[in-house]
Write a structure and sequence with these properties.
Layout: H1 2-26, H2 30-41, H3 45-57, H4 61-68, H5 75-87, H6 91-103, H7 110-121, H8 128-141, H9 145-155, H10 162-175, H11 179-192, H12 196-209, H13 215-226, H14 230-243, H15 248-260, H16 264-276, H17 282-294, H18 298-311, H19 320-336, H20 341-358, H21 365-377, H22 381-394, H23 400-412, H24 416-429, H25 434-447, H26 457-465, H27 475-491, H28 495-508, H29 513-527
Length: 531
């Protein structure tokens, strides 16, 4: 009797533990999955497979390979070995092994299709269309939530797969199992579509469905930081870390979210803590470099970006933001160290051009804006104007603000010819934008700093007559116009026209020195009989 009870208990523990291990993997809790699965793996081929998957996700490729090798004839473990082959860059061998698995599928054998497809979806190097096809075959035999979620994840690897991904995540939630995972995926998709209320609703559904799932807290933290609600972001970061395994990867995620929430000193402190523990991942030095730049510690930023490039041996893991931050760092250093400015500016241009070359997106507007913002932050306005100009050059239908930024930063960089070109282009494209006309005047006035040619006069006069619903002639802008016109007509010995603008200045500023001096000059001139 006791033997029977012990056997039943053991079976029950096994039945509960294997799904728990799978769930931990889905939640990114790979250390917890290992602890759950290790007692089962010696006697269960499927538990052994999931144990190997846990090791693979912890970057323990050799350990995973040894685990999968224990059951060479089991298709789960064969699919695990295919994942190892993908990780080793042996794509053809991996694809051949997966094809062998599905070729042996019998009429009701849906799991072969699903497990083979997973090997492609959750690694890199495989043909994602094969994975989608195999998931669809699996679902035709056995429609279940886990496979729908996996199919949604596969569609997310396609550039236009968001709609099909959503369909599958929603189908998974309707089936009533794995709801927490499905809702967290749906929330992330809605957030990407800027449907923030729907995203928040689904993140909360995910938390309610399983309070132990750390994923919605991670997604919420990222959502709040993008919305600029940094305290809420931090609150959710802390909750994510509390529910996660606090593995090295979890702590790196935590540090990354600190960075994204603009907690730059805290992010650096966390990373230094990890490095002190012996963690030597190249990514950490990147994050220090980025954070140090944001705190204006440019030498520290430079040192750590150099460390990152030296330590990162895989060129595929160098991203465009690495080049952009490196360029920004060089630009900032050029402003700090004028003796080496030419060298730093050359380096900045090198990195920014690397970013442009590496970016395969047809519309590079967002990239150009990032680069321009870097120059703007470093107060190198001339270069900022040049890069904003590239936005318009590549996309003549760019919004008015892009034209305006092109002209404005060219103006502040004393590149008046370029500024004039930009504001003329803006005015031609957007004739109802009064700011284009005003800044044409400002630019012409800057080129005529002594107000002798009157180049800005026609622009200012036209701007003063400009009327458009919602457009306001600001007091400071009006004073700029009145001052230039008064100064120009004073220089031109046109007392009548000069006094029109002098009086307008005095209406707004009765104590204005320039206007009072000119007015007094004309009064004395009349008294002297000179006129």
């Amino acid at each position: 009797m006791l033997t029977a009870m012990a056997a039943a208990l053991a079976f029950n523990v096994h039945a509960q533990s294997l799904p728990e291990g799978e769930k931990m993997i889905h939640y990114g809790r790979f250390e917890s999955a290992k602890k759950t699965l290790e007692p089962l793996a010696g006697k269960d081929e499927v538990a052994n497979y999931y144990l190997g998957i846990s090791e693979l996700n912890l970057d323990n490729k050799d350990a995973a390979k040894a685990i999968f090798a224990k059951y060479p004839d089991n298709f789960y473990n064969q699919a695990g070995m295919a994942r190892v082959l993908f990780a080793e860059g042996k794509k053809e061998e991996a694809a051949k092994l997966l094809q062998t698995i599905v070729d042996k599928a019998k009429k009701k054998d849906w799991e072969r299709y699903k497990i083979a497809a997973d090997a492609i979806t959750y690694t890199s190097g495989g043909n994602i269309t094969d994975a989608i096809s195999w998931y669809q075959k699996a679902l035709a035999i056995n429609a279940n939530a886990v496979t729908h979620i996996a199919l949604g994840d596969a569609y997310m690897k396609l550039q236009t797969g968001g709609g099909e991904a959503m369909n599958n995540y929603e189908k998974a939630s309707e089936l009533g199992t794995n709801n927490s995972l499905a809702y967290s995926r749906i929330g992330a998709l809605w957030y990407a579509a800027r449907r923030y209320d729907d995203a928040l609703k689904n993140f909360n559904l995910s938390k309610d469905a399983d309070p132990a799932n750390p994923l919605p807290y991670k997604e919420l933290a990222e959502a709040y930081q993008r919305a600029g609600r940094y305290e809420k972001a931090l609150e959710n970061i802390e909750k994510f870390l509390e529910l996660s395994d606090q593995s090295i990867d979890d702590q790196i995620t935590y540090a990354n979210l600190l960075f994204l929430s603009k907690k730059y000193p805290e992010a650096q402190s966390k990373i230094q803590e990890l490095i002190a523990k012996g963690v030597n991942k190249p990514y950490l030095y990147r994050l220090i470099g980025y954070s140090a730049y944001e705190t204006k510690d440019y030498q520290k930023a430079l040192t750590n970006m150099h460390l990152f490039y030296n330590k990162e041996q895989n060129p595929d893991k160098i991203i465009n933001d690495d080049y952009i931050y490196s360029g920004r760092i060089m630009t900032a250093l050029a402003m700090e160290d004028t003796m080496k400015a030419a060298m730093y500016n050359d380096s900045a241009n090198y990195f920014f051009n690397k970013a442009v070359t590496a970016d395969k997106v047809a519309d590079k507007s967002e990239l150009y804006k990032k680069i321009a913002d870097g120059f703007k932050d470093a107060k190198n306005y001339r270069q900022a104007g040049n890069w904003y100009g590239k936005v318009v050059a590549d996309n003549p239908d760019a919004p008015a603000i892009d034209y305006f930024n092109w002209g404005l930063y060219a103006y502040y960089g004393n590149n008046y010819e370029e500024a004039a070109k930009a504001f003329l282009a803006m005015r031609n494209k957007y004739p109802n934008e009064g700011s284009a006309l005003y800044w044409q005047a400002r630019t012409a006035a800057a080129q005529d700093s002594e107000a002798k040619t009157g180049a800005a006069a026609p622009f200012y006069k036209e701007w003063l007559q400009f009327s458009q619903e919602g457009y306001e002639h600001k007091p400071a802008d009006l004073m700029n116009a009145y001052n230039y016109l008064a100064y120009y007509y004073y220089n031109a010995n046109n007392e009548k026209e000069a006094m029109i603008w002098i009086e307008k200045i005095l209406e707004k500023d009765p104590a204005n020195d320039f206007a009072n001096q000119v007015k007094e000059y004309y009064i004395k001139l009349k008294k002297s009989g000179a006129k």
